[in-house]
Amino acid sequence: MAQRILVAKVGLDGHDRGVKVVARMLRDAGFEVIYTGLFQTPDTVAAAAIDEDVDAIGLSMLSGAHMTLAPRVVQKLRDRGADIPVIVGGIIPVPDVAKLLEAGVAGVITPGSTAEEVIAMVRQVIDQHIAQGRV
Amino acid sequence: MAAEMNPRKEWEAAFAASKVRDEPFTTMSGIALEPVYGPDDAEQPGVYPYTRGPYASMYRSKLWTMRMFAGFGTAQDTNWRFKEIIRAGGDGLSTAFDMPTLLGLDSDHEMSDGEVGRCGVAIDTLADMEDLYDGIDLSEITTSMTINSPAAVIFAMFIAQAERAGVPRAKLGGTLQNDILKEYQAQKEFVFPPRHSMRLVRDTIAFATNEMPRWHSISISGYHIREAGATAAEELAFTLANGFAYIELAMQAGLPIDAFAPRLSFFFNAHIDFFEEIAKYRAARRIWARWTKERYGATSERSMQLRFHTQTAGVSLTAQQPEVNIVRTAIEALAGVLGGTQSLHTNSMDEALALPTEKAARIALRTQQVLAYETNVTNVADPLGGSWFVESLTDEMERQAEAIFATIDTLGAGSMLEGVIQGIEDNWFQGRIADSAYIQEKMLNAGDRTVVGVTRFLEGNDEASIDVLQITNEDEARQHKRLESVKLSRDDNAVQKALDYLRTVAADPELNVMPALIDAVSVYATLGEVMNTLGSVFGKHVEVPTI
Question: Which terminus, N or C, of chain A has the lesser number of Cβ atoms within 10 Å?
Answer without folding.
Answer: N
